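Q: Study each token:
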Amino acid sequence: MTTSRQTVEAVIRKQISSALGGGRGIAEGAIPTLIFTICWLVSHELKLSLILGVLGTLIALAIRLLQRSTVQFTFNALLGITIAAIFAARSGEAKDVFLPGILYNGGYAAVFILSILVGWPLLGFLVGSVTGELTAWHRDPGIVRVCSRLTWVLVIPCVLRVAVQYPLYLGDHIGWLGTAKIAMGWPLQLAAFVAMAWLLSRDSTPVNAEEPQ
């Protein structure tokens, strides 16, 4: 029986592709923000913008259901715009549509940075989910190093979003805030994935190079 040499980089590439849901999953995740921001910039009608953002996501969800395909990505988008709508509806201010995203990015960055500092980078658990042993990867310093680098790459977009969007939020610059959210959304995330792809393209870190006895 022949076995192929599996690498950490190959494992993580596969897991990231699955997590994103391909181009369609990426597009579905951007629907509510794109619709809300464009509608608000044109009409300055908070209620209308929220309704259209939710409606666009529901249409994408209905298409998924009709096709009997996974609804994970549209459901996540629907959850996000629903939370945003609740924040904005309670305050009556359009800028609060963006507050959950700012809080999410800040919390996401904090958790990921902490995981690196304590030596358990969260990207390592992607490896564990494939190997079937959630923490076994931590015994290999090579895997820990690779996963730490990749986790830093994911942190950078979140830090940049907070650094740019929070001052705009405080200044009530809704137009600029909406523009920044779109510009720093998937384009910035995709840039991070390009950087990750470059790191992963080297295929140099074996998975389970030494099996535990």
